[in-house]
Amino acid sequence: MTKIKYKLIKEDNKARLGQIETKYGTYETPMFMAVGTRATVKTLSPEELYNCNCGIILANTYHLWLRPGEDIVKKAGGIGKFMNYKGPTLTDSGGYQVFSLANPKDITEEGVKFKSHIDGSNLFLTPEKSVEIQNKLGSDIAMSFDECPPASASYEYMKNSIERTLRWAKRGKKVHSNKDQCLFGIVQGGPHEDLRKYSAIETVKLDFDGYSIGGVANDGESKEDMYKAIDYSVPYLPKDKLRYLMGVGEPVDILEGVERGIDIFDCVLPTRIARHGNAFTKSGKINLKNAKYKEDFTPIEKNCDCYACQNFTKSYIRHLINVNETFGQRLLSIHNIRFLIKLTEEIRESIKNNNFDKYKKEFIEKYQNK
Amino acid sequence: MTKIKYKLIKEDNKARLGQIETKYGTYETPMFMAVGTRATVKTLSPEELYNCNCGIILANTYHLWLRPGEDIVKKAGGIGKFMNYKGPTLTDSGGYQVFSLANPKDITEEGVKFKSHIDGSNLFLTPEKSVEIQNKLGSDIAMSFDECPPASASYEYMKNSIERTLRWAKRGKKVHSNKDQCLFGIVQGGPHEDLRKYSAIETVKLDFDGYSIGGVANDGESKEDMYKAIDYSVPYLPKDKLRYLMGVGEPVDILEGVERGIDIFDCVLPTRIARHGNAFTKSGKINLKNAKYKEDFTPIEKNCDCYACQNFTKSYIRHLINVNETFGQRLLSIHNIRFLIKLTEEIRESIKNNNFDKYKKEFIEKYQNK
Description:
The structure is a homodimer. The first copy, chain A, has helices at about 45-50, 60-65, 70-75, 80-85, 95-100, 125-135, 155-175, 195-205, 225-235, 250-260, 270-275, 305-310, 315-320, 325-350, 355-365; strands at about 5-10, 15-20, 25-30, 30-35, 55-60, 90, 110-115, 120-125, 140-145, 180-185, 210-215, 240-245, 265, 280, 285. By secondary structure, chain A is an alpha/beta fold. In chain A, strand 2 (about 15-20) and strand 3 (about 25-30) form a beta hairpin. The longest helix of chain A has 27 residues, at about 325-350.
């Protein structure tokens, strides 16, 4: 049995220090997972991810289904072997991407009809199909196919949606056949306390290997609604299973999530903001395009142990970003990923020392320049 | 004195094995120089260049003059420190770029008027200005500012042009003030035997630190004209100075150049063809986009010692190129640069063993699938 196993090590109020055993080694949680949409974390090599101390990385089922196709990935030995990443991997269900490409009328009990973003061809994704693709992709953690209703959805729509998501979760679980792969259930319900509670309780009844909280990173979702959604869901999730907050990676949100009992996070943020010249620092985000860095021959952040900060200046990275050279994006991606991973390392240390609250307060004060 | 010093070690017919002493260490020639136009070899880190066994790398004066500006590079400690490349660097004169942006009527005795490719603003480059910029960029080797007439230029035009290039070479040498930097002269003269001879003899009279043969990689230049240009120039170049064939990087052309007594080469080819999915192999160029590599889980080339071949399959790289992910371009760039560097390593070995001719013949036969 090579399935990932979670163990809760200790709690500091609701914040959890945990451990996951995988065939690649043991990793600690809370953990930030870098996103490698198309079987590559944009611009980076596996070695650069190891050097950032990455654990699980995430790939997107929808994108890999279309190109190169799940059968090629399976023949390569699974997503990890395909991209030569010697660590654990997680695939999403494709739902998040699919719903942004579908019309509401194309969502039926059976599944979702939508048009390919590549060639406009008609595609159809069902809970069974999503799980079958993920079985072939061979990630260590697969996600159930769920509906992600927009933040603007009515209470009534949301209620019907979580019922359907539960039926879909059941259908996906039924066909899940990869014994080395975990399958996670997803709690939905928007900002509604009763719906989150109902969705959490009913999803847990289906007995998944872990649980995620979805629908919190949609466009138009407020921070307050995100924190509420976690507060309303977490009490009904079992303590001995991983808890995953999907699509969240702002440093403050990671801290808020950990405080509420979340173990793992993922987000495209560190690589996406890198493309626009942005870098996380302990004193908040900075944009390297700013003229004040023109002759700044110091690293992005003093005392940062990342490859970019150990070897290059703001002035040089600014130049690379300004002339649109990929190496600039690569250096900022390394720095930003390392920043979030380092944040989780410090969070874990603070939980060990029972002072997560203090750490969180001090981090946010400095980060928000208060 | 930290100027690069060349030493001829041995000859095998006209092919030369040489050594350059630099403040970064000793390197052997023949050598292929990777091109880092904007102070970065596209997509690659310095460490990746060291792992390819790169020696000198080249940066473009025109591009760095415009962005970030030579003063910033000087303040950073020179081009090497700016980009954190711990090896020798060479800058071109800007001429090649400038002439492609200028109208013929804008070329005067004083210099060249042209419009910036970035914002269309009016710019003026002179032999003095080019050398002064390069002094500040602080490369280990600077090039004289020369006119690069098109292949279609008349004999008369070419004759006048080489006279002006000689006057420009004198003017540039006069203002060259960086004592740690070599300044090279450039031989022009198109495919005309008498003009190449005259240009070589007169340029050598000016006593530069090394000599390059220019005007062989222009659009419309035939291979035969390139080989002739070398044959007509080399006999008049001193044996104890480096000989540089500008803009040439096709494997067969490197071999033809070495056979005729050339020491160093540069070309954007390995990184440019990488962007289009092409890889050098001993059996010729291949395009990874080809459908036949879809399920090819072997490296680009068996027995290749590069990072790409040691870690990734054709199938994976093909996927990355198809979905336009930079990591694919990066892997192909590493492979292609390593391929050309390895070629020069094998060339050096063959010169040591007095069998360059045999090596060249066998390489070309296999490369051209004869």
